[in-house]
Structure formats: C-alpha cells, structure tokens
Specification:
The protein has a single domain, classed as Cytochrome c-like domain (Cytochrome Bc1 Complex, Chain D, domain 2), CATH 1.10.760. Helix content is 59%, strand content 0%. α2 crosses α5 and α4 packs across α5. It is elongated and about 55 Å long. It binds heme C. Heme C binds next to α2, α4 and α5.
C-alpha cells in the first residue's frame, strides 16, 4: 500500500515538472543552432545576447519558441517537447 502511494505521489510530482532533461533536449534539438554555428541564434550562456530577449518575459519567449521566430523553426525542432519542457530548456539555455 505504501509503495502504491509513493508511486502515485512521484507521478504527481513529476507530471508537474518538465519530463525531459533540458540539457538533453538542448543537445538534441537546439545545439545545432544555439552553439555558435548560427551567429544570429543567441548562444547558451551568452548573457549579453540573452538579456534583451529575457526582458520580453518568459511567456513571450515560450510563445516565440513554440511558434517559431524568423529563422528558428517552431518548437526549435523538438516536436515531442511539452510547453513545460520548452520552458525548462529556455531557462537553461539562457543561463
Ligand atoms: C534552425 C536553428 C535553430 C534551432 C534548431 C533552434 N533555434 Fe532558437 N533561435 C534561432 C535563431 C536564428 C534565433 C533568433 C531569432 C530572431 O531573433 O530572429 C533563435 C531564438 C531563440 C530564442 C529567443 C526568442 C526571442 O523571442 O527572442 C529562444 C528562447 C530560443 N531560440 C530557444 C530555442 C530552443 C529552446 C531550441 C531547442 C528546443 C531552439 N531555440 C532551437 C535558431 C534556432
């Protein structure tokens, strides 16, 4: 009984958070552009490049990534990313 409760609890906890590891998503979907290969795509950790984008607020960033922005394809090509996954990667990529 305790085990079932613990499993249910874990399920509730984990479903409230991003299901995918931000770094893994970045390496798989975003790194091809956001690692310096594409100069107009802000690089991970480049504070100066991220500052004006972060100023738009997390909701705008999430919308732009989900729908795509100019050269960036919708969802940054992570088709199995939930909005929570994308939000977690955006937070990770901009630090
Ligand atoms: C095909 C290349 C490409 C891929 C793949 C890509 N991006 Fe981008 N991304 C760009 C470019 C280029 C920009 C700058 C767009 C502009 O401002 O015109 C950008 C901008 C952004 C921004 C800033 C948006 C804003 O409103 O200023 C975020 C956040 C972002 N990308 C996150 C991601 C994440 C997260 C992934 C992976 C899930 C990803 N990108 C994958 C090319 C890419």
């Amino acid at each position: 009984m305790n085990k079932i409760l613990a499993a249910a609890f874990l399920l509730v906890i984990s479903s409230a958070h991003a299901a995918q590891e931000p770094e893994a998503v970045f390496n798989r979907s975003c790194a091809m552009c956001h690692n310096g290969q594409l100069p107009i795509a802000p690089k991970k950790g480049d504070q100066a490049a991220w500052k004006p984008r972060l100023d738009k607020g997390p909701d705008v960033l999430l919308k732009n990534v989900t729908e795509g922005l100019n050269v960036m394809p919708p969802r940054g090509l992570c088709m199995d990313c939930s909005p929570e996954d994308l939000a977690a990667v955006i937070a990770w990529i901009s630090k």
